[in-house]
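Thread title: Can someone regenerate the structure for this chain?

I was given the following input by a collaborator and told the matching structure tokens would be attached. They weren't. Posting the sequence so someone can regenerate them.
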Amino acid sequence: MDRATGTTDPGGGTRMTDRLLGVRRCLAAAPADLLLERLGTELARTYGTTETELLQVDYRLAALVPLSGAEPVIGAGTPAWRCFDHQSEVVQGGALHVPVTMRGDRLGVLRLAPVPDDPERRGELAEVATTLAHELVAVRPGTDRYAVGARTRRLTLAAEMQWELLPGRSRIRPSFSLAGQLEPAYAVRGDSFDWADDGQRVWLSTVNGMGEGVTASMLTCLGTNALRNARRAGLELADQASLADQAIYSYHQGIQHLSALLLELDLQTGVVTAVDAGSPRLLVLRGSEVIEQPLDDQFPLGMFDGTLYQSQRFELSVGDRLFVVSDGVPEAASQTARYGETALHRSVRRTRSMAPLEAVRSLLGDLRAFVGSDLVDDAVVVCLDWTGRV
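Best answer:
Regenerated them for you:
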């Protein structure tokens, strides 16, 4: 085969481009709820696989859940989790595991058997898994099969609303990578995050709606969409905060309000513009040093009528990592102690060599181990790396 074009095959077999094109056509034509079944049939025909299984990462980032309904895979040492964590193929036990990831958003792992002997064909199957990831995201609004299949328990109504509001759970570009997580994953209330980028800037917001249950979720939904509306109108960051503030005050008349942190990172210079409206805390990991980034505290969104917000700026160094953590992290308590600043800084330092999603998982895993159970109060953790490359 011509490795540059994939258009010839001296052995007379199906060419690489033909195989991959066939898979893409198969997935594009498949009913939304039958992607895996149609993919399995096509892979059996073109690659000789007899087993095709999709394992989706659950909402808690703690289990890989087979779409077939088999037992979830738990444990960092398993082939599926090694594939998910390192985002590379893993061959073990007669099966090939490849990551199902779209633009850095890790959805799960595709497990295939038997394993092709040809490394080039295994590389093609990695491309197949990426194509599957794009299709899963595309069909999600039209079927509940994959959303339900990624759960190990029922979500509360408030959590359902919060998860549907998110832009994804991780994102990668040459200039940055980021990830976020909500806890307790199956019962989260008012905490949430949002992000967007245009190749030159990345916007990140973390919010916490006051109240409990659906009341908090509805407030967070209003605030997030008001911020998106202002951002998409091209407003400056401080004006985005003011527009959202007006929207929330107009509806709730100050009875309810929303804590928020708005960030805008210039991907060329590393300059961060920030608006702190009663927000979570912001930490910078620079080398092995954890820096508490000081911010000018302003009123939460919607607390008063006509609040004027001011932005501030600080600079990142290439390779810096930002952590945004809500109060539910340092304030989490076991039966005998509070998690606190020392443990938080230690957990942040420990993530230096990890990708952002692994870093988020590590910090929250340490927090759950400290508490000894699922978290009681809401917590949001977002991790952002700036590489300096555009």
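The chain has two domains: 16-149, 157-386.
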